[in-house]
């Protein structure tokens, strides 16, 4: 036990068991009680033995390292998708069949292996993308560790250890904090060494300004912002120094709680709305594939299993394994045909293109699925500071003295940033500034330790933001020796006026701010040798110590009660507008400092060393005026809020700042009306947690405000909204926002002011920290979703056509028209470019005038499904029909098909081709295709290897129909006459690429061999076009019916959704 602890008895055992049961509320106890509880004396600190004992109990002061998900589990998670499982099963079966065919000496071994290998490749690429996205989630926790302090100045065994690793701190340690230090643990302030001590804790609590700390205890039920006697790990000291007592370390600190909440939120992440819809589609597709496969087998069972009836019972069963395998391959082909293998790749490509568009609008997407999720956002929960506001203090109002004691001169100050050229002062007098305005400008410039500098394209403050804002105000006011007073637009140097004031008046002493007198002052020495005291501080305090006031012309008059009331009335008006007001005063009569020039030997210097004398120095002041400052709202935000309202998106503001300031900002930006009663819409986080029916409260239409919110409040609000079926976008920049960012459907971090923790926990980062960027991104997300629906409709209609084609082939008993590798080529390569190009469809002009889609909206409506069943039926009939036409007709629609010399057969022969060996006198003649001649020693081979030309025609018809069908997908119900193909030139290019790829496999001999096809003649291409083009006419008729019945369908849809809700 340490020396200082020897005086304390052992009546209060200090162990982890008691601390786990109940956290000691150090903020609500006085300093003595805290020292007694932690058994330590601030003069000596803990002993080495006691430190070791406590480390055994509490461990090290560091955040836990959560074990990440194993790579094996991540791989298994990627298989938790219906479409992926079907694909995997199809690939395995294809591989086994290819292996079996090879062992049996079958033909086309290369073709057989291409299909399973390509499917495996697709699955591997999708798995890599999925694993990469999931491992990103761990980075938020790592970033949180980086903001922890590395070292601390600690008192142990009565000696100061200046550079102790922060992780070695234990509860009870005595730590000294100085300006610039990062706080290493949660600590109770024991004593202030300097007159004031301020900490920047906005990243943890959401407060927009540095907070002054005190040693005085506060109420036990105080929120985190109200704990003025506590400092928290990860925050930064911006002014003064103090002695603290460590109360919580590691995971027990406030930042440790955030760490736990991030971990908890990451474990409860849900699928995006699109992923849910695709999973539902996959499950439906599985059922459909199963039914169709069973039907195919039932239709064809007679070919591989026969029996005879003897005495009414089936006997003499005959089973053909070769034919069974053949029809099993058809079932596999059916699975390959039904699954849109290219869909994952096209979705990824479309989302990636969406991220590029969003990046151009300053929204940097970190997780691809977020692009689409943005489109169905129903609620935006926005932080105030830095998102709705600029996070830059700016003067909004200036009040100067008038020409008489009963008049004031108010001026509105424009501008919302630290840029001195951003706005001007309205109503500013033309010509040289009067004496009163000169004095206000002088105090703003000289009674000030801050600065402003350019950083890239914007300006940043150096020092305390309020003081930086006063420096900018001084620039806008101008200088009496400068010709451009009232505007600094012509200044090349950011703080030119302040520099001129410094040249005229030299600062020789500073009376630091303290919380008792709530003011700061400086003594300046002019060129003439005259000493002046310049004071700024809280208006009430400065006014109380003022005996005189300066009028417009510089004359000094007695400050009477009427003048005081007038100034206080103006102060009250400014305060109700959530302005932070500062008063300006000065004093010329400084007899003690008449000969003082900063010399430490001067008798007056002793007065400056004693802060208790500052109040007497700052007495009998001359009041000059006051300024109202604030963190102003961004100019674009009001319109963005209006856009949200038009788009059916509710905006909720959740901030750690105080209630009055937040309400004033919300009224100004349009979340609330300027005179609206908001008593039921504005609550503190603590008050909200006491509401009985929280979900009903959150369902209110219009905007809501939650002020003084802690991290857990933000999480609870997001969780409740999600449980109620809302799609939630949450913005934030601080460490305290990270858990809610992780939990929300879309977490949006600030790129400029945001902490690394917030950025790593987010799905999207705003490069310009601007709320209006979110609204633009939502519009882009909606557009992307519409385009994705277009290409999903297109791909699914194509796959329906392929399924119908295979089903008809099996049902009619004709030879297999297309082999699996050909279907795979169509699904992946030929369909890919048009589907991707549909992602470039232009954004609808009224996209942000429509309400967000419901999360239970189907990806494909009943009408769209019917339409594409009709289209699919035609695709199937066309591909099978052209196969039959080649075998049975010498010409079709006037197109001569007999030039290759192939033999014609009847439809009956074609549908019973497996009985060819029993036909008497059946023979076929050789035919040519692309310079090759096909001869048949066995006439029955005409239906096997001889089907190569008919199969090529079927494949070409399928490709051509799908290209024309992509034009149909340009609009869900719009005719090609109103939305012609050239509205999306990328689609025309994609069609050209797909046709080019098809020509490539047709006319390159090696590729033609791999895909089992041959080149086509001009007449055969005419046949392909004649059979394919009607798909446009059919869909145009269906679209016309759709347009005529859209109102009827909408009303029935709303009725069914109401019934569901009931």
Automatic annotation (TrEMBL):
Classification via InterPro entries:
ATPase_P-typ_cation-transptr_C, ATPase_P-typ_cation-transptr_N, ATPase_P-typ_cyto_dom_N, ATPase_P-typ_P_site, ATPase_P-typ_TM_dom_sf, ATPase_P-typ_transduc_dom_A_sf, ATPase_P-type_domA, HAD-like_sf
**Catalytically driven reaction(s):** Ca(2+)(in) + ATP + H2O = Ca(2+)(out) + ADP + phosphate + H(+)
UniProt-listed SMART domains:
Cation_ATPase_N
PROSITE patterns, A to Z: ATPASE_E1_E2
Recorded GO MF terms: ATP binding; ATP hydrolysis activity; metal ion binding; P-type calcium transporter activity
Location(s), subcellular:
Membrane
- What's the main place this protein lives? membrane
Per its UniProt entry, which superkingdom is the organism in? Eukaryota
Domain Cation-transporting P-type ATPase N-terminal span(s) in chain numbering: 25-99
**What is the name of this protein?**
P-type Ca(2+) transporter
């Amino acid at each position: 036990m340490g020396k200082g602890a020897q005086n304390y008895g052992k009546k209060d055992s200090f162990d982890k068991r008691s601390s786990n049961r109940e956290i000691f509320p150090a903020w609500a106890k006085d300093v003595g009680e805290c020292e007694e509880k932690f058994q330590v004396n601030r003069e000596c600190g803990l002993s080495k033995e006691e430190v070791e004992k406590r480390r055994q109990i509490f461990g090290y002061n560091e955040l836990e390292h959560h074990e990440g998900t194993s790579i094996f589990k991540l791989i298994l998670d990627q298989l938790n998708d219906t479409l992926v499982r079907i694909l995997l099963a199809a690939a395995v079966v294809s591989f086994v069949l290819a292996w079996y065919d090879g062992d049996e000496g079958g033909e086309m071994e290369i073709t057989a292996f291409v299909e399973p290998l390509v499917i495996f490749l697709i699955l591997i690429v999708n798995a890599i993308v999925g694993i990469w996205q999931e491992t990103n989630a761990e980075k938020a926790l790592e970033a949180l560790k980086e903001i922890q302090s590395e070292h601390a100045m600690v008192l142990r065994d009565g000696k100061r250890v200046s550079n102790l690793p922060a992780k070695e701190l234990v509860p009870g340690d005595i730590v000294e904090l100085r300006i610039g230090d990062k706080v290493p643990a949660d600590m109770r302030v024991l004593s202030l060494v300097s007159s004031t001590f301020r900490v920047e804790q906005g990243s943890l609590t959401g407060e927009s300004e540095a907070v002054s700390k005190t040693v005085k205890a506060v109420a036990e039920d105080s929120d985190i912002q109200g704990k003025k006697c506590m400092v928290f790990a990860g925050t930064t000291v911006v002014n003064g120094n103090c002695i603290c007592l460590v109360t919580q370390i590691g995971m027990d600190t406030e930042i440790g709680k955030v760490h736990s909440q991030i971990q908890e939120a990451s474990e409860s992440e849900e699928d995006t709305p699109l992923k849910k819809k695709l999973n539902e589609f996959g499950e439906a597709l599985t059922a459909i594939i199963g039914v169709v496969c069973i039907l195919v087998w039932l239709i064809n069972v007679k070919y591989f299993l026969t029996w005879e009836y003897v005495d009414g019972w089936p006997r003499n069963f005959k089973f053909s394994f070769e034919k069974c395998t053949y029809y099993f391959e058809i079932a596999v082909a059916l699975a390959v045909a039904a699954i849109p293998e290219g869909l994952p790749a096209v979705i990824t490509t479309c989302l990636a293109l969406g991220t590029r568009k969003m990046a151009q609008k300053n929204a940097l997407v970190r997780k691809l699925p977020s692009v689409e999720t943005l489109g169905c956002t129903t609620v935006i929960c926005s932080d105030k500071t830095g998102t709705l506001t600029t996070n830059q203090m700016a003067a909004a109002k200036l009040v100067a003295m008038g020409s008489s004691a009963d008049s004031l001169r108010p001026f509105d100050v424009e501008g919302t940033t630290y840029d001195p050229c951003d706005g001007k002062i309205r109503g500013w007098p033309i010509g040289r500034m009067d004496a009163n305005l000169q004095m206000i400008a002088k105090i703003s410039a000289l009674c000030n330790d801050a600065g402003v500098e350019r950083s890239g394209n914007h300006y940043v403050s150096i020092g305390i933001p309020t003081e930086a804002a006063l420096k900018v105000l001084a620039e806008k006011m101008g200088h009496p020796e400068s010709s451009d007073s009232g505007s600094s637009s012509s200044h090349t140097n950011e703080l030119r006026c302040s520099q001129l004031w410094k040249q005229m008046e030299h600062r020789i002493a500073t009376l630091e701010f303290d919380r008792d007198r709530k003011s700061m002052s400086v003594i300046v020495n002019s060129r003439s040798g005259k000493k002046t005291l310049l004071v700024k501080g809280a208006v009430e305090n400065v006014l109380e110590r003022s005996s005189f006031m300066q009028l417009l012309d510089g004359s000094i008059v007695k400050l009477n009660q009427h003048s005081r009331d007038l100034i206080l009335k103006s102060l009250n008006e400014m305060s109700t507008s959530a302005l932070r007001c500062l008063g300006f005063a000065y004093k010329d009569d400084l007899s003690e400092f008449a000969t003082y020039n900063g010399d430490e030997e001067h008798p007056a210097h002793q007065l400056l060393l004693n802060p208790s004398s500052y109040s007497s120095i700052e007495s009998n002041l001359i009041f000059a005026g006051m300024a109202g400052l604030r963190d102003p709202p961004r100019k674009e935000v009001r319109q963005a809020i209006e856009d949200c309202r038009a788009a059916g998106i509710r905006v909720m503001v959740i901030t750690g700042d105080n209630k009055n300031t937040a309400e004033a900002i919300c009224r100004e930006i349009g979340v609330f009306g300027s005179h609206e009663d908001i008593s039921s819409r504005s609550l503190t986080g603590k008050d909200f947690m006491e509401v009985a029916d929280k979900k009903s409260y959150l369902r209110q239409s219009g905007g809501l405000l939650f002020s003084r919110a802690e991290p857990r409040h933000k999480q609870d609000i997001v969780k409740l909204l999600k449980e109620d079926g809302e799609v939630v976008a949450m913005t934030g920049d601080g460490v305290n926002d990270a858990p809610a960012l992780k939990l929300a459907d879309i977490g949006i971090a600030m790129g400029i002011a945001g902490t690394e923790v917030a950025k790593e926990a987010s799905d999207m980062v705003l490069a310009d920290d601007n709320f209006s960027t979110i609204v633009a991104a939502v519009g882009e997300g909606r557009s992307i979703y519409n385009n994705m629906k277009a290409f999903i409709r297109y791909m699914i209609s194509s796959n329906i056509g392929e399924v119908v084609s295979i089903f008809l082939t099996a049902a009619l008993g004709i030879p297999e028209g297309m082999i699996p590798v050909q279907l795979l080529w169509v699904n992946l390569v030929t369909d890919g470019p048009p589907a991707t190009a549909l992602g470039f469809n232009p954004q609808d002009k009224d996209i942000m005038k429509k309400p967000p889609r419901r999360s239970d909206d189907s990806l494909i409506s009943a009408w769209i499904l019917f339409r594409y069943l009709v289209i699919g039926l035609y695709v199937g009939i066309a591909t099978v029909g052209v196969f039959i036409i080649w075998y049975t007709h010498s010409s079709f629609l006037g197109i001569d098909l007999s030039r290759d010399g192939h033999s014609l057969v009847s439809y009956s022969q074609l549908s019973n081709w497996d009985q060819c060996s029993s036909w008497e006198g059946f023979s076929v003649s050789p035919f040519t295709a692309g310079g090759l001649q096909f001869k048949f020693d066995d006439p029955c081979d005409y239906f096997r290897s001889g089907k190569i030309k008919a199969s090529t025609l079927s494949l070409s018809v399928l490709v051509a129909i799908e290209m024309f069908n992509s034009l149909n997908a340009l609009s869900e119900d719009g005719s090609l006459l109103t939305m012609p193909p050239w509205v999306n030139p990328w689609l025309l290019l994609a069609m050209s690429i797909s046709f080019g790829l098809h020509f490539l496999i047709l006319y390159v001999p090696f590729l033609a061999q791999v895909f089992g096809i041959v080149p086509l003649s001009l007449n055969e291409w005419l046949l392909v076009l004649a059979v394919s083009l009607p798909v446009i006419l059919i869909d145009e008729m269906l679209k016309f019916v759709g347009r005529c019945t859209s109102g009827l369908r909408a009303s029935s849809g709303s009725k069914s959704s109401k019934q569901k809700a009931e």
